[in-house]
Structures are given as structure tokens and as C-alpha cells.
Amino acid sequence: MTKFFLIAPYPKLLGYNTKPMLLTPHTVAAIAIASLVKQPELALLLAFASHFVLDYIPHWDPPLLVKCLNAKVPIRAGKEVFLFIFCDFLIALTFGLFFIWRVMPNTVLAGTIFGAAFLANVPDGLALPLLFGKRWGWVRRWRRFHRIYHTTPLPLFWGLLPQAVVIAIGLLIALRQTLP
After folding, report:
1. Per-residue model confidence (pLDDT) at position 96
2. SS3 for 16?
3. N or C, which end of the chain has less CB nearby within 10 Å?
4. Helix and strand totals (H; E) in the chain
5. Does residue 80 lie within any of the structural domains?
6. What residues make up the domain containing 97?
7. pTM of the predicted structure, to 2 decimals
8. Alpha-carbon distance 38 to 41, whole Å?
9. Cis peptide leading into residue 162 (ω within 30°)
């Protein structure tokens, strides 16, 4: 089985019954949208909506994360889950900051890229309390709604492949649209 470089030291994270998508594809798709759509308000709206479209694509994510998000009783996420999320967040942040730097001094486009990247990840961010074992009513209702848009999980390699394709296409679009 192919191992993703970020989780190689954490074999418990390798598994198949999963649902969410990584943060990085959401971020890169939002950057591509922000660089393509010239109206900032429309770009922000499309970036938020892209989250649900991407979640509908079959993909892979760490099973321990999904177990914490979908548990009927509160389960606090372990260090492995937080480390994985942190590494994914750093990669997404790196892409975001690179493109913000690339479009400067165009502050409107830089702000649109920042806002789009943020909004594209809000749906997953609203579920963060679940990782701390919190089961507030609004969080459970949001998670129930959010899971509607998820699709059949895939094994590691086949689940990371569509995410890598989204990242590659998003980067190509964003790089072409933000030529200096």
C-alpha cells in the first residue's frame, strides 16, 4: 500500500472507511477560483460552494479523524489526528501565502485569495469542536448536514489520487491566472 509522506510514521491513520477531504485541495481550488473570477464577491461565494462539490468526489482521509467526527459519544482526537491536521493546514497555508505574495501589490486579488481559501475550509472548521469531544447541538446538526455531501470513501492510493488531481489542476489554473 502506498503511504502518504505526512502520515508514514502514523500507521493507525491508514485505513479505508473515511469521508472528509483534506484541507489542501479545498484551499488550492479556492485559490484557482479567486484567480479566475474577477468579481471578489462571486469568487468568495463560489469558493465556499466548491467545498461541497469537492466533498462529493470520492476521496480518502485519516480514519481516526473520521471516527472522532462521526462518533455518537464524545471522543477526543489523539495527537496523531491533530498532527495530521496541522501538517495539512501548513501545506494549505503555504499555497495560500505563496499566491497572496505572487499577486501583490494587487490587494483586492490578494484579499480575495485569502477570503476564498478561508471560506472554502469553513465547513470543515465548524466541526472542530467534535475533535475536542464537544457535542454541542449546533455542531451535531452542522455535521449531519455536511455529511450529506460526502460520497463513498476510497482506499488510500485511489482516495489521494483525486485530491492530487484537484491540487494539480488548481495550481495550474492559479499559476496561469496570476502571471506577474
Report:
1. 98
2. coil
3. C
4. 8, 0
5. yes
6. 24-177
7. 0.82
8. 9
9. no
Give pLDDT, residue 53. 92
Write the DSSP string, 129-173.
HHHBT---HHHHHHHHHHHTT------HHHHHHHHHHHHHHHHHH
Q: Is residue 139 part of a domain?
A: yes
Do 135 and 74 touch, CB atoms closer than 8 A?
yes
DSSP letters of 38-49? SSHHHHHHHHHH
Q: How many domains does the chain have?
A: 1
Note whether residue 13 is domain-resident. Answer: no
Q: Is residue 167 one of the residues assigned to a domain?
A: yes
Mean pLDDT by 10 residues, the chain (180 residues): 37 41 94 97 98 86 68 75 90 98 97 98 87 82 78 79 95 93
Q: Interior CA angle at 147 toward 161 and 71, to 5°? A: 100
Whether residue 5 contacts residue 144, with contact meaning beta carbons closer than 8 Å, is answered with no
